[in-house]
């Protein structure tokens, strides 16, 4: 398992290196061409750890394995996690360090033609909604999924990449997904520019998860204080802004195209912990 260590300080609340599991889910986490862990969540955790003088080792692995190792205590931490009661059996949750949003998108060249201010607009305007099969897309979608299908307005696909491709071929009108990951994926992997619609479909607080197998309460409290300090200083918001404004141009840092594996925070507990609105998010 490739690993990357960050930080070399002593006299910290984490005298040992913190082992962090992650998978390929751009722009939240992935490995660049040199094997370095990069991404929004990587940047945020690194900032929090550096604030405390802690050392991190990022270990790339499938989501299911990371959850198993977190339960066993051989992994210390996972990023990008949504809170669920069943996970509290083996993990502590930090305070929220960012908010995840689910939004609707259209191709940029159709932004002037389509406007959705409320969920019912999908029905009244007869808009075909493209939805990746796996993921959490809010209560409005959950409650209306069968009716969307009955009226021929629901177009399911195996993953977000295929949904983006289908949107580019006009096999659907609007696309649902993670507000940061979906446009990034579309621009960098598919060459499609997306525009968000007005409606905020869902939002969810995102946390770090710590193994309960090891006594991480002291570290948890220190990281919560670091999150609070950096939030009040505006440092966490600056990282989010940076990733929201990432250039549309592809660079040598561009992540590989995901294979469709769910992100851990969004998956059932058979996989890594993730929130569900994305294909590969680690802890939802």
Describe the structure.
By secondary structure, this protein is of the alpha/beta class. Helix content is about 30%, strand content about 25%. Strands 1, 2, 5, 6, 7, 8, 9, 10, 11 and 12 form a ten-stranded mixed sheet that branches. It has a two-stranded antiparallel sheet with strand order 3-4. Helix 4 (about 140-150) links the parallel strand 9 (about 130) and strand 10 (about 155). The longest helix has 16 residues, at about 215-230. The protein starts with a strand and ends in a 40-residue tail after the last helix. The model is unreliable at about 1-10, about 245-255 and about 260-280 (pLDDT under 50).
Summarize the structure.
The protein is an alpha/beta fold.
Element string (H = helix, E = strand):
EEEEHEHEEEHEHEHEHEHH
Number of helices: 8
| Helix-and-strand structural type | alpha/beta
The portion of residues assigned to helices is: 25-40%
Mean pLDDT, to the nearest integer, reads 85
Beta strand count:
12
Report Rg. Answer: 19 Å
Strand percent estimate: 15-25%
Ends: how far apart? 22 Å
Largest sheet: 10 strands, mixed
> What global shape is seen?
elongated
Low-confidence stretches: 1-10, 247-254, 258-280
Keywords, please?
284 residues; alpha/beta; two-stranded antiparallel ribbon; 30% helix; elongated; signal
Secondary structure elements and their pairing?
Layout lengths: L2 E4 L11 E5 L7 E2 L5 E2 L1 H13 L3 E5 L2 H10 L4 E6 L8 E3 L4 E10 L13 H4 L4 E4 L6 H12 L3 E4 L2 H9 L5 E5 L2 H10 L3 E18 L5 H16 L2 H10 L40
Helix pairs in contact: 1-7, 1-8, 5-6
């Amino acid at each position: 398992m490739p690993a990357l260590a960050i930080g070399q300080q002593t006299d910290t609340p984490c005298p040992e290196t913190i082992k962090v599991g992650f998978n390929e889910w751009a722009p939240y986490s992935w490995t660049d061409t040199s094997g370095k862990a990069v991404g929004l969540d990587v940047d945020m955790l690194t900032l929090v750890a550096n604030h405390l003088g802690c050392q991190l080792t990022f270990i790339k692995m499938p989501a299911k394995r990371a959850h198993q190792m977190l339960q066993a205590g051989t992994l210390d931490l996972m990023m990008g996690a949504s809170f669920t009661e069943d996970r509290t059996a083996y993990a502590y949750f930090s305070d929220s360090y960012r908010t995840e949003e689910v939004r609707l998108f259209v191709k940029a060249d159709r932004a002037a033609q389509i406007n959705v201010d409320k969920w019912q607009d999908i029905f009244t305007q007869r808009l075909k909604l493209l939805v990746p099969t796996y993921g959490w897309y809010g209560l409005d979608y959950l409650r209306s999924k069968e009716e969307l299908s009955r009226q021929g307005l629901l177009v399911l696909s195996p993953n977000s990449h295929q949904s983006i491709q289908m949107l580019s071929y006009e096999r659907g009108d609007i696309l649902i997904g993670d507000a940061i990951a979906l446009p990034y994926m579309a621009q960098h992997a598919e060459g499609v520019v997306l525009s968000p619609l007005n409606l905020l479909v869902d939002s969810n607080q995102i946390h770090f998860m710590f193994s309960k197998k090891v006594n991480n309460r002291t570290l948890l409290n220190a990281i919560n204080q670091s999150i609070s300090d950096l939030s009040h200083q505006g440092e966490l918001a600056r990282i989010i802004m940076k990733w929201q404004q990432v250039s549309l141009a592809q660079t040598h840092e561009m992540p590989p195209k995901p294979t469709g594996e769910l992100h851990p925070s969004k998956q059932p507990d058979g996989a890594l912990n993730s929130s569900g609105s994305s294909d590969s998010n680690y802890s939802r």
